[in-house]
């Protein structure tokens, strides 16, 4: 492709990426270094027959003028990143000194908002991502082995979890795990505990959130792997069968190597999606048991006092976290490309 043709070909996408990706990131990074101005307080002394009293009031005009002069707020540097709601260097150092061991230190970290959200986010991502890939691959292999006359309906039902709106799907599972729901009642029967409640247990709530994450994301992996299975060289498979390879050996030595680029692609998408888990926490009303980085941003932006600087700092840390998680996969992809 000529240079001029290539320029006009990539220009629309480049402009859109600058407008809707690069500029918002720059804006968020800039906002994270500023904090809101404090209100200007006036102290007035009123004297009367019974003595003098001090009264305080907010100078609305002076506060408005200050905010108009400096709309971004007061420059705080990295103070927002190091406060208790984020990296909390001071609190982490104090917890390390006072802790009796790593378990005690980890427990102290989980009492800090950012590390509590980070702990659940990393656990969710580390468990849901590989399970989604494995389950999606198994379903793709199973559907590919079904008779052609039944593949259409089978594919449709396999895609239902992805078709259902995430909020609706998580609400359905939330009602099912209720003490009066079918799953909640079944768990009570299995545990022989009529008072067992998924909603009251942090461990069970984490498990249910991850179960929902795998259930909702597995159809995406299934579609990708099923499409990849249609491109497997049949001559290679037939040669393996002639050589006496079992079904498992054909999958292991022929199918899996052929689908490895797709595994990398699915892993990239799932890492990004799972690291910003949000909808299940809202639908399951699980904020008392599990909070993610995305939920922390939502919490900062909600309510009467919108903590824009705090939300911006958490967003920047989330972007850095996603970059760190994706770096091994991207390095592997780059090496494969060069090879």
TrEMBL record:
It holds the Pfam family BPD_transp_1. It is found in: Cell membrane. Keywords: Cell membrane, Membrane, Transmembrane, Transmembrane helix, Transport. Residues 118-326 form the ABC transmembrane type-1 domain. It comes from the Bacteria. GO terms for biological process: transmembrane transport. One of its GO terms (cellular component) is plasma membrane. Its main location: membrane. The chain crosses the membrane at residues 6-29, 117-143, 155-177, 204-229, 251-269, 310-331. InterPro entries: MetI-like, MetI-like_sf, UgpAE/MalFG_permease. It is a multi-pass membrane protein. Belongs to the binding-protein-dependent transport system permease family. This is Carbohydrate ABC transporter membrane protein 1 (CUT1 family). It comes from Litoreibacter meonggei.
């Amino acid at each position: 492709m000529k240079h001029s043709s290539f320029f006009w070909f990539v220009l629309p996408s480049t402009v859109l990426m600058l407008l809707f990706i690069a500029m918002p990131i720059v804006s968020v990074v800039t906002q994270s270094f500023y904090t809101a101005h404090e209100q200007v307080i006036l102290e007035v002394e009123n004297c009367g027959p019974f003595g003098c009293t001090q009264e305080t009031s907010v100078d609305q005009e002076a506060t408005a003028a200050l905010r108009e002069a400096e709309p971004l707020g007061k420059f705080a540097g990295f103070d927002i990143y190091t406060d208790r709601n984020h990296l909390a260097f001071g609190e982490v150092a104090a917890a390390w000194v006072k802790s009796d061991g790593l378990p005690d230190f980890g427990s102290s970290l989980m009492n800090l908002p950012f590390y509590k959200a980070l702990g659940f986010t990393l656990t969710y991502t580390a468990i849901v991502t590989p399970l989604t890939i494995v389950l999606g691959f198994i379903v793709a292999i199973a559907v590919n082995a079904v008779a052609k006359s039944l593949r259409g309906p089978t594919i449709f039902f396999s895609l239902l979890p992805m078709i259902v709106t995430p909020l609706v799907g998580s609400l359905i599972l939330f009602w099912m795990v209720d003490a009066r729901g079918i799953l909640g009642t079944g768990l009570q029967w299995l545990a022989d505990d009529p008072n067992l409640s998924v909603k009251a247990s942090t461990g069970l709530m984490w498990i249910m959130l991850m179960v929902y994450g795998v259930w909702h994301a597995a159809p995406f992996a299934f579609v990708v792997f099923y499409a990849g299975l249609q491109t497997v060289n049949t001559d290679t498979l037939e040669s393996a069968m002639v050589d006496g390879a079992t079904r498992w050996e054909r999958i292991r030595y022929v199918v899996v190597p052929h689908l490895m680029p797709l595994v990398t692609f699915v892993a990239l998408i799932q890492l990004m999606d799972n690291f910003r888990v949000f909808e299940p926490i809202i639908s399951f009303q699980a904020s008392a048991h599990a909070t993610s980085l995305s939920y922390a941003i939502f919490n900062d932006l909600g309510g009467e006092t919108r903590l824009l600087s705090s939300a911006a700092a958490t967003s920047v840390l989330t972007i850095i976290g996603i970059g760190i998680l994706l770096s091994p996969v991207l390095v592997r992809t780059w090496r494969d490309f060069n090879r």
